[in-house]
Amino acid sequence: MMGLALTLGLMAVTPAAPDRLGASACGDCHGTAFESWRSSAHAVSATNAIYRAGFRVEPRQFCVDCHTSTLARAEEGIGCASCHAAAREAGAPAAGHAVALRARADLRDPALCRDCHEFATPAFEEGAVRMTSLPMQRTYSEWLAYRAAGGAGTCQSCHMPGGDHGMRGAHDPDLLRRSLAVTVTDEASGARLTLASAGVGHGFPTGDLFRHLTVEVRAAGDAREDAWRVVDRMGRRFETRLDGATMRAYKVETADTALVPGVPRVVALGTGRGRLEWRVRYHYGSERDERRGVVTAEALFATLATGTIDGPSRARLGQGAPPRADYSASPRAAWPAFSRARSRRRRAELSLGSRATAALYSRSASR
Ligand code: HEC
Ligand code: HEC
Ligand code: HEC
Ligand code: HEC
Ligand code: HEC
Questions:
Q1: What is the tens place of the pLDDT at every residue in 181-215?
Q2: What pLDDT shows up at residue 126?
Q3: Residue whose CA is at the smallest distance from ligand 3 atom 40
Q4: How far out from the chain centre does Cα 17 lie?
Q5: Fewer Cβ atoms within 10 Å of its own Cβ: the N or the C terminal residue of the chain?
Q6: CB of 81 closer than 6 A to ligand 2?
């Protein structure tokens, strides 16, 4: 009954008149921008399942301020006005427009993206929010480092080619695969992979703090999913410590091994004699998220590259071409059984109510 009353209440306050600042109103005249925006992560930043699950558990204004439009309906996510509305003091609305528009030069400035893609970890203490010195996301600083090292791209030139508002990023597995170069060397001293990011203007991975890459190996022919062994991990690592004076827990970053543009990373695969299978995977969540199995495997991993290294070729050192990497087309192909098991477990857990979800997303309290 309460749910019904709430729904009716919401309907009563939803304006029936067209929302002049909403994306679809802009879309009446800017169809191309609207269609590409609609396919972007920005369009669903307030409504996608993973964000909603987090927000249900931790309904902070802090999240809303960044994940939703300021001037349009909240469910729109990062709408047109979030980027196009100029500061209030900018003066009269542009001709035919409901708002004053940001100037083109300001639109092309990465500072526009910095406002949301660079921020500190908050601490919620006695009802107040205090920003700590630990960056939660720092894509903009990573981009500054890339520029200082001679990189030429901007957020807009890479993410909005030709004015495309689709903002392809980590949720596009094909883009992820193109963004990683893997070279295999197989010598008597052991097999190695050399990994480098390609065409990325910040860390790989960047963005959400739990994203990471793993390099994994197993004996060729051993089809068991749990035979995979992680030999390297690229991303940020955190640790929770206790402040003895205040008795408050706080989080510190203990390592950041994300791939830096132009700096290859060499990974030894071991010197075993048999044939070896390897793979490189992108992880959207933390190791804890994966152990809990609350989110489907499809939403947790993308396999970026796989290959096999022939043991015997090591004996014929220096002869013939090095083993070729075999880039698997389907990220799911390598672990269908695993994926099915996780999906089943997830359905079971979700049907128990929101407890499991709550456990997963309470991490956002210390994100
Ligand atoms: C009634 C039609 C109409 C609506 C509705 C409309 N626009 Fe426009 N918009 C135009 C026209 C016409 C131009 C000028 C076209 C040109 O200069 O190429 C324009 C230009 C623009 C430009 C380019 C300005 C520049 O610097 O070149 C942007 C950005 C823009 N509109 C954003 C928006 C946004 C955001 C909304 C929704 C709040 C919106 N428009 C709603 C018709 C409209
Ligand atoms: C995340 C920020 C962001 C959002 C959200 C966004 N835009 Fe844009 N938009 C930009 C930037 C940046 C440019 C300038 C691109 C350039 O010039 O390279 C731009 C350019 C434009 C242009 C000019 C295109 C051209 O090539 O002349 C129009 C029109 C426009 N946007 C409309 C919209 C509409 C309509 C929406 C919502 C459906 C929207 N934008 C949402 C950032 C955004
Ligand atoms: C008002 C805040 C805001 C602004 C301004 C903003 N973003 Fe975002 N952006 C977000 C949020 C929130 C998400 C996460 C969406 C989600 O829930 O997946 C996001 C996600 C993204 C993604 C990830 C897409 C993916 O598939 O992984 C890219 C790329 C991106 N933004 C690029 C940009 C660029 C480039 C600009 C500047 C032109 C920009 N953003 C400006 C808030 C913003
Ligand atoms: C030289 C091109 C380039 C530049 C410059 C660049 N990016 Fe990216 N970005 C990429 C590529 C390629 C990917 C996909 C690979 C990855 O996830 O790192 C990506 C991924 C992302 C993601 C998704 C990461 C995730 O974990 O979900 C976000 C968010 C993002 N970029 C934001 C930005 C912002 C903000 C800027 C400017 C401060 C920027 N990018 C500058 C190329 C670029
Ligand atoms: C200052 C801006 C900002 C604030 C505040 C913020 N986020 Fe985000 N969030 C982002 C951006 C930008 C991304 C995209 C980074 C990426 O793609 O890796 C993101 C990504 C996410 C994702 C991953 C979405 C996906 O599609 O993979 C979740 C979940 C999330 N945020 C939840 C939250 C919650 C819950 C809060 C509040 C406790 C919060 N965020 C506060 C900017 C913000």
A1: 999 998 878 899 999 999 999 999 999 998 999 99
A2: 79
A3: 113
A4: 36
A5: N
A6: no
321 pLDDT band, cuts 50/70/90, is very low
28 lines ligand 1 (CB under 6 A): yes
Tell me the whole-structure pTM to 2 decimals.
Answer: 0.86
Q: Which of 32-36, 213-217, 308-312 has the lowest mean pLDDT?
A: 308-312
Q: In whole angstroms, what separates CA 45 from the centre of its chain?
A: 12
- CB atoms near residue 367 (< 10 Å): 19
Report residue 286 as tokens. Answer: 């933390």
- 285 neighbors 292 (Cβ within 8 angstroms): no
Distance CA 33, CA 165 (A): 6
Q: Is the pLDDT of residue 224 over 80?
A: yes
> Domain extents for the chain?
170-366
Nearest to 124 by CA among 360, 365, 363: 365
User: Which residues on neighbouring strands pair with residue 213, listed in sequence order?
Assistant: 234, 282
Question: What atom in ligand 1 is closest to the CA of residue 84?
Answer: 35
| pLDDT, tens digit (0-9, with 9 covering 90-100), for 113-122 | 999 999 999 8
To test the ligand 1 pocket, which listed residue (21, 24, 32, 97) has its Cβ within 8 A of the most ligand atoms? 97
pLDDT tens-digit map of 227-248: 999 999 999 999 999 989 988 8
Establish whether the linkage from the previous residue to 205 is cis, with ω within 30° of 0.
yes
Distance between CA atoms of residues 37 and 35, nearest Å: 5
Per the CB < 8 A criterion, the answer to whether 190 and 271 are in contact is yes
Confidence of residue 290 (pLDDT cuts 50, 70, 90): confident
Please tell me if the CB atom of residue 119 comes closer than 6 angstroms to any atom of ligand 5: yes
Q: Which atom of ligand 1 is nearest to the CA of 20?
A: 38
Of 39, 42, 63, the one to substitute when testing ligand 3's pocket (max ligand atoms within 8 A of C-beta) is 42
* Distance in Å, CA 86 to ligand 1 centroid: 13
Taking CA atoms only, the protein residue closest to ligand 3 atom 41 is 113
Bridge partner residues of 242 (DSSP): 249
